[in-house]
Amino acid sequence: MEIPDIERRRAGLGDLQQSWIVVDEYNYDIVEHSWYIEPHQEVLGRFSKSFMMKIAAMFAKVRGQSSRVKRFD
């Protein structure tokens, strides 16, 4: 699912030409051991509620077909 320009700017991703959300897989990470999550990291931004609802609907649609991607090894 492509992220529209306005939502990309709201999320703090404005300098990227294109951004996508993959809805048929999800990251599995353990926060305490994560290489990807910083404990005191500043929030870049956030998507609007209406766009989050679209993302949630897409996730729900493919929920039974999604796969987990481990982010800790």
Report on this structure.
This protein is an alpha+beta fold. It has one domain. The chain is built from two helices and two strands, in the order αβαβ. The protein has helices at residues 5-10, 49-62, and strands at 25-28, 67-70. Strands 1-2 form a two-stranded parallel sheet. Helix 2 links the parallel strand 1 and strand 2 (67-70). The radius of gyration is 14 Å and the shape is globular. The protein starts with a helix and ends with a strand. The mean pLDDT is 84.
Provide the fold topology:
Layout: H1 5-10, E1 25-28, H2 49-62, E2 67-70
Parallel strand pairs: 1-2
Enumerate how many helices there are, as a single number.
2
Instruction: Write down the Rg.
Output: 14 Å
Q: Tell me about the biggest sheet?
A: 2 strands, parallel
Order the strands across the largest sheet as they lie in space. Answer: 1-2
Name the beta content range: 5-15%
